[in-house]
Amino acid sequence: MLIEGFYQAEKIEDNKSNELIYAVHLNKDHKIYAAHFPGNPITPGVCTIQILKDIICEKFNKTLVFNHIVNVKFLNVINPLETPTVNYVIKYSEENESIKVNVVVKNTEKVFTKISGFFNEL
């Protein structure tokens, strides 16, 4: 985990249809939120992507890099005071030497981020 103490991820589902679901609990008191932004904490987009990378590396038990980001859409901000837990719904497939992902970061009411791209082993 690159961002120590920023979040805790709990595996909800890892089924045979190449889909992972993780509940990610954000630490509203982490120092990142003191700078981004005091009094109105917003989860930085790069942190949202790093959490995805951490989950994929754990799943495949490999050191991976996000080799090619096809698309990232930040649709709503994630404020840890209002939304302390988000779900990462990850559909993945292995193509050649890459792991292709399509991800939706959401809760029951909102979609926050959509990400698609390819990971490769470092």
Question: Care to describe what's here?
Answer:
Helices cover 17% and strands 48% of the residues. It has helices at residues 31-35, 45-60, and strands at 7-15, 19-26, 64-74, 85-95, 98-106, 111-121. A hairpin with a 4-residue loop joins strand 5 (98-106) and strand 6 (111-121). The radius of gyration is 14 Å and the shape is globular. The two termini are 16 Å apart. The model has no long low-confidence stretch (mean pLDDT 95).
Helix and strand layout, with pairings?
Layout: E1 7-15, E2 19-26, H1 31-35, H2 45-60, E3 64-74, E4 85-95, E5 98-106, E6 111-121
Antiparallel strand pairs: 1-2, 2-4, 3-6, 4-5, 5-6
Q: Tell me roughly what share of residues is in helical segments.
A: 10-25%
Radius of gyration: 14 Å
Uncertain runs are none
**Spatial strand order of the main sheet:** 1-2-4-5-6-3
* Number of E strands: 6
Going by CATH, the architecture would be Roll
Q: Fill in the CATH topology.
A: Thiol Ester Dehydrase, Chain A
Structural class: alpha+beta
Number of domains: 1
CATH class annotation? Alpha Beta
User: Could you describe the largest sheet, including whether it forms a barrel?
Assistant: 6 strands, antiparallel
Strand percentage lies at: over 45%
- Alpha-carbon distance between the two ends: 16 Å
Globular, elongated, flat, extended or rod-shaped: what is the shape? Answer: globular
* Element pattern in H and E: EEHHEEEE
